[in-house]
Specification:
The complex is a heterodimer of chains A (698) and B (77).
Chain A: H1 3-50, H2 62-74, H3 83-112, H4 120-150, H5 159-186, H6 194-197, H7 201-205, E1 209-210, H8 214-241, H9 248-257, H10 291-299, H11 305-309, H12 311-314, H13 321-340, H14 359-364, H15 370-374, H16 381-395, H17 401-413, E2 444-447, H18 449-454, H19 456-472, E3 476-477, H20 488-492, H21 496-512, E4 517-520, H22 523-531, E5 541-544, H23 545-554, E6 566-570, H24 584-592, E7 596-598, H25 628-637, E8 643-646, H26 649-661, E9 669-672, H27 673-681
Parallel strand pairs in A: 2-3, 2-4, 4-5, 6-7, 6-8, 8-9
Helix pairs in contact in A: 1-8, 3-4, 4-5, 5-8, 9-10, 10-13, 19-27, 23-24, 25-26
Chain B: H1 2-36, H2 44-69, E1 73-74
Classes of the chains: A mainly alpha (698), B mainly alpha (77).
Chain lengths: 698, 77
Amino acid sequence: MDSLYRLFWERQEVYIMGVFLPVIIGFLALFAGLIAAYVKGFRWQHLRLWHLGKEEDRSDQGAVRLKELLLVLFANFRIGSEAYPGTMHLLIFWGAILLFAGKIVRLFSYLTGLTNPPQVIFLYASFAAEVGGLLLIAGGLLAIYRRYLLKPERLATNTDNTLILVWGAALILTGYFIKAYRITAVGAALPPNWFFWAPVSYPLSKIALILPRTPLNELLIWHRALIHVLPALLLFAYIMFSRTRLQHIFLSPLNIYCRSLKPKGALAPITNFEDENAESFGVRELREFNWKQLLDLEACTNCGRCQDVCPAHLSGKPLSPRKLIQDMKEHLWKEGPKLLALAPEEREGEAIIGKSLDGHALWACTNCMACQEVCPVYVEHVPKIVEMRQYKVLTEAEFAPELQLTFRNMENNSNPWGIGSHLRGDWAKELGVKTLADDPNVEYLYYVGCAGSFDDRGKKTAMAFAKIMQAAGISFGILGTEEGCCGDSAMRGGNEYLYQSLAQANIGIMNGYNVKKIIATCPHGYNIMKKEYKNFGGNFEVFHHTEIIADLIRKGKITLKKPLNKCFTYHDSCFLGRYNGIYEQPREILKAVPGVTLAEMDRNQERSFCCGAGGGRMWMEEDIGERINNMRTDQAIATGAAGVALACPFCQTMLSDGIKDRKKEEDMSALDIAEIVWEAMGLEEKAPPAEVCAPPEA
Amino acid sequence: MGTLTLFRALAIIVEVTVLMGLIYSIVNGARYALFDFGLDEKYSEFIRLIVVIVGCIALVFFAAHLITFYPRVVGHI
């Protein structure tokens, strides 16, 4: 520390020891009290509300949880996936970290005597705090511009948002003012590079007005310290004890840490169907959620990313995942304390659906999980929706009539169409595909699924895939008439009882044949057998047909020799992509087909747009808003591709319908990847289509 | 001197704005916290009225206080 610095600090000493020290000591004492009250109040304010819910263990795999939490916190992983709000959050987050780091060093330096004589660390603390303030201002300005001028639809602005911005801005400014006035009051003897250590306060000090005598300036700076420190303390109190969205500072990290580590999209099965005393199934009121689901509600930051990607919302349905969670949060805050005021045996919560949630919102969800994929704090929307559907279906029997028909068909014929189950294996007869009854020693069970067995489009896919496997010499068989519906639409549609009976029937047969490996052409069956069947003793290695085909191509077991001369766009099925992370294999296959070019839609891979058939919506009327499949078809048409490549029979139906609706049948076709590959193998003579890969007409 | 007077007036306006920002934040923060703690919504209008009155008093006080006591000397010596 050279002599000029020493002189500067000595002149500051009167302000540091005479003015700031009492303020700092008072602040630290009150802040410690505040923290103690918060820790004690956390139970009253939050924990007891969450404990209204059911037990759920989220304490396993601490290292994995911590790693993801640190990634989200410090690298702003997920938050940064959108440039504008990501940058805004990054600036505010790191601004606050730097500011607090600087302030903490300074606060404790006063008490520990570090500043007298001054230490170099004090200069760094000053710099960190000043830069932190600047970053906060930059982030705050971005926030103001976005929230009050750009006004994106997804942002629900309320007075709390304004309050936080005004409070923060006033605190930062008063912070800079204190230092500027202190520098001015010291007068000459400023070190030459002080501008570097105080890049904002130093220029401000040049225009600061001060009083003519030191004691009066002490009074001036005392005032300034108070009007900075007292509101800062009150802001901390506000954050800790009110329901402000700034509580996400504590609640979001907790929610991220406690997120589900189960396979993506896996649902918890209902386990008490055998319980004669069970009066209801699914979720009617708060207490029927688990505690983590209640924490989810409080941790939601209302950022609206989920709303921006929700196909139901974007097509004009009465569902916004953001609003759904926010409405349930309000419900928790309103009804939770009322329940807690009663003895546990007297508690009877208000129904969520009908009181705080619109039932239509519940049924508009396609379970596409786009909302969960983008949520920066890992809120789990879909399980809540399915569990509330379960209550409506299993306890109240109040759901769409067309879904009633679907469930009845599944009960009677083990398929949603209600076609006689004895016809299930007919598609394979002419191909000579073996059943497991004929030969139980095959390597793979090809689980064909309802679409592959009964739907004309689905049958073509099943046949193409079976022919590919035969050509590649894969040892496989089907269950034929013994196969049953996988139960996905029943489960996602809230009929857990039906799903479990279908699943158990399938598992019984599969285990009876000692099945180890299953291939599915339908991502819904693939997903459910991979993740949900193990709850009932079905432990299988499950593959999707795109995984198998990609592997066959890689190993040279099939040769694609016939040029198709066609431009395709690939539609990522939600249950294959977001649920199971299979994005590359279908693309790898298409790229291997001679003459095929791939044009990506704007929304692809993790950001893919649902076809509208998931979550049981395949079987329900879509009479509100625009049809989701048409929206997706428009996105496909915009690529100029002549074909939509698919890997899901539900998506194929939806996009085929979309192509018809848009009157594009002559320009565009919706084909499963298996069909494309089979054609490219050139083992069946067929005239190649003319090249069509022109941009769409305006 | 005229420039200094103008500068002082501007400085006072900036100071009053910042102070009113703080008052706005504190009283509204208290207002929201009261409702979060369970105060009935029927008091909303009454509380809003109190907030406006407190805000007006603070505005008058800060303006008067700063006009009277704010330094008249250019800071940098």
